[in-house]
């Protein structure tokens, strides 16, 4: 009789131990996921806080908790949608009825308690080192590639190059192990007026590391190649930028224009890098999100008459110069072109 009574207790104990081991295993797996050096795709990310669930996050960022399966599919690193842990990063998805990811929460009804702060959202762009800029005056080059090993026309990663520094006294800047960004300068959209107004486009090609100093020149090795490098390309000091940036409030009242695309294509779309004609002096900072508008014209209301602007996309600021900024078009409803209007959401 006693053994029969003990059997249910033993079964319950075994079930509890199994559940505890499973939970511990999931927690350890989550800690491993958090601690790993994950290579994130470009996009908006939220860091999980205590008490968060995919259901709640779906409600917060898409206005519908029932879209949590879409949020789970966007984050394949999560094996079980019912178990997410503080410190994990969740990649957010765009709302189906909007053109960009919302980064703020609708204000709740007034209560006696202080309103909760909006959730902290980051934008991650892993290719930030290859993002160029428009600057006036242009960067003064500290060196130039005058020859490649084996006289290769197209230089890539692991290739050796020979660098001449144009000014005497530059030897200390070229110590072995020092890195430089390789670049070219261009007219934005090959437009003289844009060049006079905003400065030259600095088109980044790769990163070179000094291997050895010689008399009058240095030998370097290409450690990263973003685009084809050639003889005559210039060097500037390498200044790494963080690929993660906090999404911050946009500057109210901004009215900017797209100057050009980085690759100087006539039309642009999702994931294209471009430049706008407002910068740090206009309180433009990395992590801000702005909307893109087209301004249709019509002859029905008179020659050159324009209709109300139409929202056609959104962009994220990646870096800001004094009077210009480099941006990423993160969503587009139609083709984006130079001259399109940029406004705060």
UniProtKB/TrEMBL annotation:
Keywords: Signal. Residues 44-92 form the LysM domain. The keyword Signal applies. SUPFAM superfamilies: LysM domain. Gene3D superfamilies: LysM domain (3.10.350.10). CDD domains: LysM. Pfam families: LysM. The keyword Signal applies. InterPro entries: Bact_Kbp, LysM, LysM_dom_sf. Residues 1-29 form the signal peptide. PANTHER family: PHAGE-LIKE ELEMENT PBSX PROTEIN XKDP, POTASSIUM BINDING PROTEIN KBP. This is LysM peptidoglycan-binding domain-containing protein. It comes from Desulfatitalea alkaliphila. The lineage of its organism: Bacteria, Pseudomonadati, Thermodesulfobacteriota, Desulfobacteria, Desulfobacterales.
